[in-house]
Design a protein that fits this description.
Blueprint: E1 2-3, E2 6-8, H1 13-25, E3 46-48, E4 51-53, E5 62-63, E6 65-66, H2 68-71
Antiparallel strand pairs: 1-2, 2-6, 3-4, 4-5
The protein binds zinc ion.
Length: about 90
């Protein structure tokens, strides 16, 4: 669903696919974990229908919103501004 100016959970399967594609694409800074006292700040979040999840085992951080352009696939039209960056820690992105 989209309410206000953010795409909030629950996300559809198409939205989840778009969100995880965005995370991998390097078109912009991927969403990373804000939990773990900052220790996970390079951990790239994985989208599921109920929200973003941190790939670090045991991390309870869940984020329930995204920017609409991340969820509706329009990010695919953006110029690439970031290359995929080895500093990021990827988990089980589908
Ligand atoms: Zn985390």
């Amino acid at each position: 669903m989209v309410s206000g100016d953010l795409a909030r959970v629950p996300w559809s399967a198409d939205q989840v696919e778009s969100l995880n594609g965005f995370q991998r694409a390097g078109v912009w800074h991927p969403f990373t974990c804000s939990g773990g006292g900052g220790e996970h700040s390079d951990a790239v979040l994985t989208a599921r229908e109920d929200g973003w999840h941190c790939p670090v085992a045991g991390c309870p951080h869940v984020q329930s919103w995204a920017f609409p352009a991340m969820a509706d696939g329009s990010w695919r039209e953006w110029p690439r501004s970031h290359e995929p960056n080895e500093r990021y820690v990827y988990g089980d992105l589908p």
